Every structure is written in C-alpha cells, then in structure tokens.
Amino acid sequence: LRVDESKLTTEYFEQLSRESAELCCAIVPSSEERVRQEVAFRSVLEVARRAFPDASLHHFGSTALGFSLANAGDDFLGKGHTLLEIFVRILTHLKMKDMDLSISLGSNAYDAYTPAQLVEKLGIVMKNAGMRDVKMLTRARVPIVKIRDAITGIRCDIGFQSKLVLYNTRLLKAYSRIDPRFRELVFIVKYWSKQRNINEPYFGTLSSYCFVLMVIHFLQIRGVLPCLQQIAHDGQNVPNIAIDEANVYFCEDVDTLVSSGKWTCTNAETVGELVVAFFKYFSAEFPYVHGVASVRTGSVLSKEDKGWTKDRQQEMNRSVEDPFETTNNVGRPVDKETLFEVRGEFIRASKILCSAGGVGTGAAYEAIL
Ligand code: CTP
Ligand code: MG
To answer: Which GO biological process categories is it annotated with (predicted)?
Structure first.
C-alpha cells in the first residue's frame, strides 16, 4: 500500500472532522428510540418471568452503550437535515438495530437445563405471549432467542450469556467517557463496516465488538486512551476480581482518573487525522502475522507468547484478544477467504481517504462507504 500522506492538508482533515461530527449526529439514536427500548426491555422481562420466575434481565452491547446506529424514526425526512443525514438515515433504516439482552437465573436452573433447552423454553413463552418473529437459535455458539417486540417493533437477541458481557460493556462505556473522539471513531468504523458488509460474524467477517476493540487498541497506541485494566485505583497493584476465571478489574472511576491528573492525554489530533491514521494502521502497519491487538495490556502481544500460532494463514483470525477472556480471540469468525475481504476493505478505505485528500475532493466519507 502506497499513499502519499504529505499531500493531505489541514483543510482536508478539518473537512473530515466536520463530516464525522455530521455523520455521528445523524446516526445517534433519538431519545424517543431510547424510550421505546425501555418499553421493550420491560415487556421482555415480564414475559421471561413466566418461564423463569427468578429471572433478571440485563441490557448489554451497543444499545446499552449508546453506540448503536439509529433506527430511522418517522421524522427522518423532516426539516433541518442535510442531504448526508437523510442518506445515512435511509441506509441505517435498512439495517435495524437489535437490542442485546441477557437473562440470569438462580444457579439451579443451569443444572436443570442445557443452554439450548433454556432457549427453547424461553422461545415458547415468547411465542405464546404474542412476540413477533420468534426464532430460536439453539445451535449457535451462544444460543439465543430472536424476537420482535409486539408493541414497539424493536428486535431483541435474548440469551443466557455469562456475566462477562456485562463487564465488557462497562469497560467500553468507561473508555467512551474518557475522550469523545473514541465514540466518533467507533461510529464511523461501525458504519463503514456495515456498509461494506464486513460486519457479519455469522458469515465469517468481524463483529462490531471486534471493531470497537480494534479502535480502542489503536487509540491506546496513539496516546488518546489509557489502558484501564493496568491502572490500580490506589496507585499500587492491580487487584484481581475473578468472575468466570477472568480478572474483570478495570479502573472504572474515569472522572477521578482524569481530574487527578493520573491520566493526561498527550495526543491533540483531530478526528479526521485519527480516521486516516486508523485505516492506515490496520491496512499497513499492524503486524497481523505475529501480533495480537490487546486492549487489556494496551499493546501488541506476540502470538507465540499466547500460543496462537497454529495456523499462519489465518492471520486475522488470531489478531484480537478479548480484554477479559484472554483465551478468546475475538476475530474468530474470519477464515482464509474472508480475511482477504476484510483486509481488502481496510486497504481500500485507506487509499480513498488519502487520495481524496490529495486532490481535495469533498464528501470523503461517502467515498469510503
Ligand atoms: N460480545 C462478546 N464477545 C464477542 C462478541 C460480542 O462478549 N465475541 C458481547 C460484548 O459485550 C458486546 C456485545 O456482545 O458489547 C454485543 O456485540 P456486537 O453485537 O458485536 O456489538 P454491538 O456493539 O452491539 O454492535 P451492533 O450495533 O452491530 O449490534
Ligand atoms: Mg449488538
């Protein structure tokens, strides 16, 4: 990959930053949508308790984080939107957002039923309660029930995941409170990945979660974000809080972290500069063959040290470590074929961003989508 970055001008980066802000404005969920999510949450809980009286329900993933791309509301062609905003809303309308929900039960239930049986039992009560489009994915790696809430029309993926999903959602949330550039970059990368069809783990490409971890890793390397799992709150040793054999400790009090000066950001780049650098990093700089992006340590680890060297051809497959479940490689769905597709998209975006800057054309993001 050869791009001449010296041609990129300050005006170009400013334009990219402006477009990023515009894109984010257009795709963040409205408050009306959050109310609908709340209504759906309550009706799912109410129905789930018919099958499992002691069930509690947890909301995780992008809709819990405020990282979801909006479902278009009724007003999406209303006044005050730019053409770009309308374009974005129409496209995201076609990719309705699912709410990720997880049920936890008293421990007896887990002895009495397999995960597939739990999902079946839940699916039946959901159907009987009049939920729409009920599908039971009993054979998925993590079995889930998919439903569409009858009142709000919101789609939900409901599973019996381990508690770790709640902790990793909290970790992502803490990072999003440290620096606003993180959230903007996540929106752009997620939106780009969905438009380019490389955000479909069921079809061998990467999950949004994987892309978000890649963004955090990049921002850590770049000095925009700290490594929250390495910062002890007392300035001494990092504690061990064990849940499901993982250490789920991280410094969650980010307000104090910043106000006390324990973390000072030294990077003053604009979002536009970071977007260009992100795509360059993952198309030309990241060492896919030997390296693993590790948010947990804020560094690139060696595959050799992690024992992840079995198949050299599946480079990306073993390139992103889960921050808590350290044996879990989050790029797992990627295989030999989809690896070329995903890396090809990174290279394409990087080239376009750099050449658009060179010739000074407008609407850079529309070009990479
Ligand atoms: N998750 C996980 N391990 C994975 C994939 C997902 O623990 N390999 C959990 C994470 O808690 C993540 C949540 O599932 O936040 C949702 O993942 P995903 O759907 O990929 O991300 P979202 O941010 O919800 O993106 P989208 O808007 O595309 O649904
Ligand atoms: Mg999700």
So the answer is: negative regulation of macromolecule metabolic process; RNA 3'-end processing
